[in-house]
Amino acid sequence: MKFSESDQIEFLGDKIVHQSAGGFVFYEALDSHVLYVALLQKSDGKFYIPKGHILKNEKPESAALREVKEELALDKDPKIVVKIGIDNYTFTLRDEKRTHHKNVHLYVFSVAQKENIKPLKSEDFINAEWLKFDEALEKIAFDKENLLKARRYFYFYKPNKTLDTLKDIQSISVGVPTHNGSKTIYQTLISIIASLGFLPSYIKKEIIICTDHCNDDTQLVVKKFISDRKQEEISFKLLNNSGVKGKSTVLNKIFQNSKSDLLCFIDDDVILKKDCILNLVNYLVNQKELRYAFAKWERKSLDSRNPWKKFWHWVLGVKFDIQPYDKPSEIMRGACVMFQKENFVYLPNNLLNEDQFLQYIYWPRTKEVENAIVYFNSVSSITDYYKRFIRIMAGSKQLEKEFTEERIKECNKNLYRKIDYKRILRLPLKQKLPFLFYRFLRFFINKIVKIRLSITKNYEWPRIKQN
């Protein structure tokens, strides 16, 4: 290890304490929001973040900036976004009995342009490279947890454009991802148009529909819908995802094809209350620190005379009707979510719970808007409930690779509601019995799903039948 008398190093008997600084340098592509991180490679093939010793009488922040600029050979100073903290670790050198204690002050940096970078040869680096975030996560040597934390901090502390009034909004795009949605998307689009009609006429409006490996009549239904509405003051785009299958890929594509101030994602099987979009927009305007506003769910009544379906609709949907909890849940459900376009986070491929992913990035700057309502179909069979349950659990398991354990625990503790069984036992029998039956079933399905997911590595959520 190379160090000099000018470095902040203490020799304390049988240990040596080093003070170092460095960090994660991010670049976010303007057109796609793909996130890149600058890493250095050594001859052993491993990748490292730029860092080095703090000099005597030098502040950690100044040292981090100096080291990052030197080791990446940057022409311009990167912008410091925030300090992550201090990473501590120990090591020993060959032929030396003393233990080295290293305190590394870590920072998040951002650059406006992806400069050409090159390694500092004197530090034994052989390569400097801009890696996409998911690739960097696979290749980085020792800082994987800090890299996950750095990405979240990069987005969370990124400057947010302030919307003072509704007049600050010039345009809005509504993105509708769809996979085999021919039976539901027509009514969804009708409700979107009605809801957009509540916005002022000076706001430009567009609807972007992106089909995802459909093998039904979805594209024909959408084309006819668009053709029938050529005279309306809303522009339409019909896209097709021919790349990696999945909602996260589709949402990334919709983002890249939108040029508006605000972007709203809406599932292809929900119905919006007429003032839903207006109420979401107003909430974003009034809550300056908010990054994502999402609509509140209300379930549709079951349009069926089948007593078996009616029974399961009653049992499996009772949690939406009585809400016997000590506080409302704040877990974001992505059936309808609104945000400023600049706050979009590029989504990893094959991500099942994209709504939770976005919330874990930005919480507590996310909020369910009470008066922005979407109506949805809840399940009416135990089979469909199992399919939805396993999808949600598989998605939650994915998130363990996208966030630190500390962040997941923090969000789960604050966002999930706790069941108040004392309150439940005081409910009328017609509400109490189905809910307790539902919880009983959920317990066993949870066990089955955990076994299934321990065996199945890759899970794809099939289309659920509509009521």
In short:
This protein has 467 residues and is of the alpha/beta class. It folds into two domains: 9-156, Alpha-Beta Complex (Nucleoside Triphosphate Pyrophosphohydrolase), CATH 3.90.79.10; 166-455, Alpha-Beta Complex (Spore Coat Polysaccharide Biosynthesis Protein SpsA, Chain A), CATH 3.90.550.10. Helix content is 34%, strand content 26%.
Task: Describe what you observe in this structure.
This protein is of the alpha/beta class and 467 residues long. Helices cover 34% and strands 26% of the residues. It has two domains: 9-156, Nucleoside Triphosphate Pyrophosphohydrolase (Alpha-Beta Complex); 166-455, Spore Coat Polysaccharide Biosynthesis Protein SpsA, Chain A. The strands form two sheets. Strands 1, 2, 3, 4, 5, 6, 7 and 8 form an eight-stranded mixed β-sheet that branches. Strands 11-10-9-12-15-14-16-13 form an eight-stranded mixed β-sheet, with helices on both faces. A hairpin with a 6-residue loop joins strand 2 (15-28) and strand 3. Helix 11 crosses helix 14 (429-455).
Q: What is the number of independent domains?
A: 2
Q: What is the average of the pLDDT values?
A: 90
Give the overall silhouette. globular
SS field, number of helical segments: 14
Main sheet summary: 8 strands, mixed
DSSP, total strands: 16
The portion of residues forming beta strands comes to: 25-35%
| CATH topology category name of the largest domain | Spore Coat Polysaccharide Biosynthesis Protein SpsA, Chain A
